[in-house]
Structures are given as structure tokens and as C-alpha cells.
Amino acid sequence: MPPRSDDPPLPGPLRFGPFTLEMRLGMLSRDGAPVKVPPRPFALLCYLARHAGRVVPKHELLDAVWGHQHLSESSLKATVNNLRRALGEPGSSSRWITSVARRGYRFTLDDAAPAPAVPPAALAAVPAVGDGTLIGRAREFAQLQTLLATHRLVTLTGSAGIGKTHLALAALPQLAQACRDGAWLLRLDSIVDADTLVATLAHTLRLSPEAARDLDALCTALRTLAMGIVLDNCEHLLLQLPALVAQLLAQAPGLRLLCTSQQALGLAGEQLLPLGPLAVPAAAGDDLAHSGAAQLLLARIRRHDRQFQLQTGQQRSVAAICRALDGVPLELELAAARVPLLGLAGVQTRLPERLDMLRQHGQHGQGAQPAPDGAARHRSLRNALAWSHALLPPQQQCVLRRLAVFEGSFSIAAAEAVVADEGLDRWDVLDAVAALAERSLLAGAGSAPAAAVRRRQHDEAGPDDASPAAPHTVPRWRMLHGIHAFALEQLDQAGETAVLRERHARWMQDLLAQAGPRVHDMAPQDWLAQLEPELDNLRAALRHAQRSDAALAWALWALSVMFWVRSGLKHEALRWQRALGELQAAAGPSTLKADVAQARGVLCVLGLALPPQEGLQAMETAHRLHRAAGDAVAAYYDLYLLAMIQIRLQLPHPAGTLAAMQALEQPGWSTALRRYGRWTAAMLRRQAGDLDGYHQAMREEQAFARHLGDRNTLWLTGYALALAEHERGDVAQALAQLGQICEQIAAAGQQRSQPSQICVHAAMLLWHGAETAASPRVHEAVALLRADGSLWTLAGALPWLPWWNSRPADAARLLGWADALIAAAGERRGPFFARLQAALEARLGAALAADAAVSLRREGAQLSEPAALALAFGPVPPGPPAVP
Question: What is the distance between the alpha carbons of residues 368 and 94, in angstroms, rounded to a whole number?
């Protein structure tokens, strides 16, 4: 029941006998243990306690507790009896609740006194704590209890809205119990200087007027007291507060302080408990019960809508909201308030507009819930962040907004390169980043390689020239999404968005250009490790360049294609190529055209994502332009890619291409770089039928890759050796070796970037085993290749599935489908798949008449992919449809 306008203000916790009544928290305890009191008797107790000593008429109690309902006095009497039973005094007489015949009831406080806890003045802005539980903070609460039990100064740190105040309030009862003279809460939001703080402390703690005179007088008054004080929201007083706190602790030995602040006070002996976001669920939303963020969001939704029930299929929306809001409690609270009107899907859709959406709507007292901690700034995300932003000096404000141009995370070196200018040197940026991290406006994002993890020496001494260097990693930093959105607003308001986005894109171009040459001398996994943390930044740079500078966009694309392919993201490279193709590409320099052409060759050879004829033309162009520009390394790699396409298409030119490669090799080149020539020579040996020479070459390359720690090349050489063993007739050895490689690829999570090995292992199993043995690998390979868009690579092996099930006609149909699919891709079967096809055709020739086989293959050529897979596997083919 809301208080009437003429009711006295809510008092602080009151003690009567063994009981403590905390009206604001809705709690009654006896000797520290909660007492269960039904809602109506509790409301009656609170009303009587607020009018203690006065006989409250029955009609007034009925009006106050039941709200103008026409009830008999028997209802009031029954509620009074229930209340007396809860207080352990059944019957008509009571020590505290006295019946006054024909008039009403009186609550007697003769032996009651205010509890030494939070007084009314300090409680003015303290929220009700709901059901009194902490959600998702069990570990932090236990840590805080331990710190409070053993230290006199503890500071909770964290960004705006992270839940510092809520956790401090939860610890207040423990602090009060541990301190003889109680525990007190003081909000510092409106306090602007040390003198005001001294006076407010003295008043809040109900000390003598003399204690408010100055800090010395306050220390004198506190010297003999043993009490706890919670100083909430200290961040705007960090110039004055540390000296005051240090003197209080030095001169009042019984004092214990718990502070909440976005930044530490920086005092000796201060114990910090950094508060991070709540744990967010996995994207699938299948672990909501173990996510503090999800549990808080759902609990707050139910506070606004008691009928809310999470429906099947909504778990992903809950997970998406929690992840997008970084598990920040304030943002989750404000988002929950929007769910009754918008629904979970509606809130998820509007997350890009979070600064407008995450605010309290309506007028307080007219349907709107109060802010989670009662402070005005916490009634919207924008207000909470504006408070933090206003506390920053101008230079830190500048750095914060400029850092918003980064997506995902960034390194200090990147920040210095993009943020610094003539008015802000790199040391200013370094200092500002440190300060922003201390103020909880930047969060750590792990660490990543800063440069080449393994550098190769460029000489021709052989394998020993390539000793791995010690890894060198640097910390990375990020903004939480809400802070990032606010900082972007500030960047736009400062008129710096266009300039900073251009700087950011140019920095990304420089980073890729520096990484490019190292791709030939580093293990692929090490090379990727340098660039993977910049994936979001790469996408942001491409978006900006696509809108503003076609030449820059194409340069970024060309420089990043190797990254896309090796990351298993070749389809994103293709999408960017299509998007940039819609622009009128500026007539850039010939080097740009050469780099773009080489990138298309990489997509063709390493990604199997472009038709070989298109790759052939691109590599001829790239080689001509790189030679003209005098770039020997690029021209050498062009020839390698060209040779791989020529071998793939079984063209007669690879030997000439190899000779041109060997003519380009220079004495200063590393053994790693010159491996392209060695690989090409080995492939030509295999093409010529020199299996022993091919086998020996692959053994040497495998040893070299093992020395370098080159995981990908170990897989590739093992794959090549397995094919050689199979061609020699050692099928068991080939299958075992490929199976081991596939297991290693799966353990590393690299199936998407290494589909060839999985494909050939599946095909080999189909050729030499029954469907039962091959089925798991075949299902995996088909699902992987459909998503990869390269199902043609395995198509020629799928006819073995109906063959092993005694369906030769269906096998012939699938063979016709495979022929058509391979031809449509502009490809030809390699040596292994050519032998596989010949073996199948021999069996089909014995089982089917020649004209029937031809007719069935012609019929199969018309099959769609789903129909062909249904013919191979049944009505439910494995895996998703191919990625467009």
C-alpha cells in the first residue's frame, strides 16, 4: 500500500525486542533470521510502526491497508491475530500490539530504538532490492565478504551500470553486524567538494554539530566508534576523497570503508574488487540457467510482466540480447522494461538503437518503474554514460571518442596509429588509454601476437635457417557495446567521424601490407594469429572504403584475400568482391590491378572458389604486371599459382612455368619462400609417373614443415604422401594416414579451411569399403562441401554409395550427375579421382549393358543437387544447402 501524503516518512530499521523491522527493504528479522510475514499483516505492522504510540482507529487501518474496500472489522481482527502469531505472541494480548476497546490498536515502542544502520537521510536514494537476492554475483559476493572481514578499505570498481551499488547494498547487513556502532550508507552523487563531504558525513552519522566543522573534528568524533561506512559513487571526487579517506582510516581505528567507484582511490592498503559484466549465455541459448545475464533479464521481465513465460524458440533471442548488451546489469534492466511492449524479438531488432531504447519510459509514478538504483542518471543508458564522460578531462574525452572507430578490439600500437595527430602525440594516447582502463571505460580483451610469431631468415642454408622465434604478444582492449555506441555519438558530434574512419581504413591497409610478405615465410597458423583479432576492424575498413574510395576498397580486398581463405571465410571474400564489383573501380595503378588479379588466383587455387579458367586468366595478368613492376617475389608466387591451375586442368605448360620460377629465384630468398618451386617440381614428377621422386620430395617437405612448426603444411604433405601410398597400392596405409590427418584437423577446429583432406578420405573409404564404414566421414564431407560450395570435388565418389547397396543403375545415374557438376565448375578430375572413376566404370560395365549405362548417365546429368543426394543417401541428405 503506497504511503499517504500525510504519513510520516519511512524510518530506518527499527528494533523492538529481538526484532528488526526494515520497512524499505520489506523485511522483518528476529535475531538476524528472516521472519516470514504474509503481505497484509506486514503492511499492517509497517503502518502501526510508523504511527507508534498513537491509537490508530480501525477505519483508518482498514483504509490504509485494504484501500477503501468495504470489509468488516473481523478481517482486521484476523489480520492482527496473524501478525501477533508471526511475532510469537498468539492471543489477544501482546507486548507490542495493544488492543484499545472500541477504538483501534496501538504499536508500543517503549523499549525500541533505531537500529544502528542506514538512517533515513542516507536512505533517500536507496532502491528496494526486490526479493533481496543477487543474481549472477555469488562469486563476487563471496569475495567481497572475505575482503570486508579482513580489510578496512575495500573498493568495488567497474563501469557505469555494472552493479557496484547493488552489490554494496547486499553486503551492508554483514558490515553492520561486524561493526559495533552499525553501518551507514552515503551517496556521493550530489557532493562536489571535501568540505561538503565532511559535513554530510557528520550529519548522516548523527554526530554532534561540532564534528561537521572540518576533517580534524570529524576524525575526533569517530575515533572511539567502530562502524562501517559505504561511500557510493566516488569517481567524481578522486582529487579530494583519497586524502580524506586516508586521514579517517589513520585516526579512527574502528572505521571500515566500502567504496564504489569507476576508478580506484589509489591508497595504500586499498583492496580492489573489479566488477565485470554478468556471464552471458552461448549464442544458441541452451545454457540460460547458467548465465547470470540471462537470469537477471528474465527476472526483470517478470517483474514488469508477471504473466511472462519463456516460449520454445525464444532462448536465442534472450542470448542475443544478453550478448549484445555485454551482460551489463543496467542495460539488461532497461531492456527488460521494453519487453512487455516490444517482445523479445522486438528488443533484439532494436538493439542497434540501444541509446534511445534503453531508457525508462513514462513519468515516474505513472506506470514507470524507478531506475534500478534510484539515481536519475541510471534512468537511461545515455545518462549513465554521460555522467562518466563528463568526469573525463578533454584529452581523455578525445581519445575515447576516437577509439570508437575500432570495431571489436585494438592494440596500443593501433590506437597510437589511428588516434594520434599533430595535437595528440602517441604518449598522450598511451596515457589516455591507461586512464580510460582505470576508469572502467575500456576492458581487457586478451592478448594477441603483435608481429611475426616465427620470422624466417632469408638465406639458402637449408632447414636450419628457419628457427622459430619466441612468441611476442601484446594486450588488446575493447569498449563494451553501450560505451562504444555512446563514444560513436560523441565522435559524430565532434565532426571527426569521416577523418577517423579514413585513418582507420589506411591503418588497416598498412597492417595488411606489412603482413603480406610474411605469408611466405611463416607457418599459416602463426600468420593468421596476427590478423584474426582484426577481423571486425577489417570489415569496418572495407565498409568505409566501399562508400568513399573504390581504389582503397580494392586494395583492402586484395591484401585480405589470403586471410579470408586461410580463415575458412572465402565466401565472405567472394561477397566483398561482388559488392566492390558494383562500384566503378577507379583506374588504380598497375600494382593494384596486379594484386587484385593475384588475389583472384588465390581464391581459385587455395579456395577452389573461382573457375580455373578465370584463375588462369587472372594469373597471367598478375604475372605480367608484377614483372613489369619489378616485384620478383609476387611474380614468383603468380607463377606458382599459375602452375597449380595448369596441372589441375592438365595443360601442357607447367614445365615451362617451373623453369620461369627457377629463373626468378634469388640467392637471398629463404628456404620457406623457395618451397613453391620445390612443390611445383614435385607435382610435375607425380604427373610424369615418378612416384618415388614425388614421395621423396614430399618426405623432405614434411620434415621441413615439422621443423618450422607449420601445422597446415604437415597436413598437406601427409595428404600428398597418402595419395602416393594409395597409388602405389598400399591402401591400408593411405587410409590410416588420411584418417589421422582428419582427426588432427577436427581437433584443431579447422575443417572449414581444410576440406580437401576430409573429402579424399571419404572418397577413399567409399572406393574401398562398405557404406557402413564410410558413412560417418561421407556425411561429414558432404555437409562441409555443401556449405563450402565445392560439392563437385566429392561428386565423383558418391556413386559408390548405391553401388555398395546393389543399385548399379542409381550408381550410373549419380556418375552422370557428377560428370555434369564437374563440367559446370570448369574442372577436371585429378589423378586420384580419375582412377576412382575408372574403377567404378569397370564395375558398372560388368553389371549394366553399355547402352543402358550411357542412357542412365545422361538421365543423371539432369538431376538437381537435392535429388542426387536423395538418390545417394535417401530423402534426408546431410548438411545445409550450399552457401551462396
Answer: 40
**850 and 858 in contact (C-beta within 8 Å)?**
no
Cα–Cα dist 702/680, whole Å: 15
Contacts of 397 (CB under 8 A, 6+ apart): 389, 490
Q: Scanning the structure block, which residue is given the C-alpha cell 580534524?
A: 216
Q: Is 500 helix (H, G, I), strand (E, B) or coil?
A: helix
Written in H, E and C, the secondary structure of 80-144 is: HHHHHHHCCCCCCCCCCEEEECCCEEEECCCCCEECCCCCHHHHCCCCCCCCCCCCCCHHHHHHH
Residue 24 in 3-state DSSP? Answer: coil
* Ramachandran category for residue 281: left, alpha or beta (phi over 0 → left; psi -120 to 50 → alpha): beta
CB-based burial of residue 393 (10 Å sphere; 0-12 exposed, 13-18 middle, 19+ buried)?
exposed
Cβ atoms of residues 396 and 402 within 8 Å:
no
Alpha-carbon distance of 75 to 41, in angstroms, equals 11
CB atoms within 10 A of CB 8: 9
What is the C-alpha to C-alpha distance for residues 504 and 793, in angstroms, rounded to an integer?
A: 40
How many other CB atoms are found less than 10 A from the CB of residue 488?
16
Q: Is the dihedral of CA 635, 636, 641, 647 positive or negative?
A: positive
377 vs 599: CA distance, rounded Å: 51
Strand partners, 475: 447
Q: How far apart are CA 651 and CA 642, in angstroms?
A: 11
- Provide the 3-class DSSP secondary structure of residue 577: helix
* Residues 208-220 pLDDT 10s: 878 888 899 999 9
pTM: 0.74
Interatomic CA distance for residues 200 and 206, integer angstroms: 10
User: Tens of pLDDT along 752-786?
Assistant: 888 889 999 999 999 987 555 457 888 889 988 88
Rounded-to-integer distance, Cα 448 and Cα 434, Å: 18
Helix (H) or strand (E) holding 48: helix 39-50
Enter the C-alpha cell of residue 611.
Answer: 573457375
- 3-state SS, 325-340, equals CCCCHHHHHHHHHHHH
Cα gap 435→442, rounded to integer Å: 9
- List for the chain the helix, strand, coil content (%; round to 5): 60, 10, 30
Q: In 103-193, which ranges are continuous DSSP H helix?
A: 120-123, 138-150, 164-178
C-alpha cell at 94: 501482546
Grid cell in block for residue 20: 528488526
d(CA 150, CA 883): 59
Give tens-digit pLDDT for 660-700. Answer: 999 999 999 999 999 999 999 999 998 888 989 999 999 99
pLDDT of amino acid 774:
57
Taking the C-alpha atoms of residue 358 and residue 342, their distance in angstroms, rounded to an integer, is 12
Residues in the chain, total? 884
Give the DSSP H/E element, type plus range, for residue 27: strand 27-30
Sign of CA dihedral 689, 693, 694, 695: positive
The single-letter DSSP state of residue 424 is B
> Do strands 97-100 and 183-187 pair parallel, antiparallel, or not at all (unpaired)?
unpaired
Element housing 77 (H / E): helix 73-86
How far are the Cα atoms of 562, 573, 633, 876 from residue 591, in angstroms, in the given order? 17, 20, 13, 49
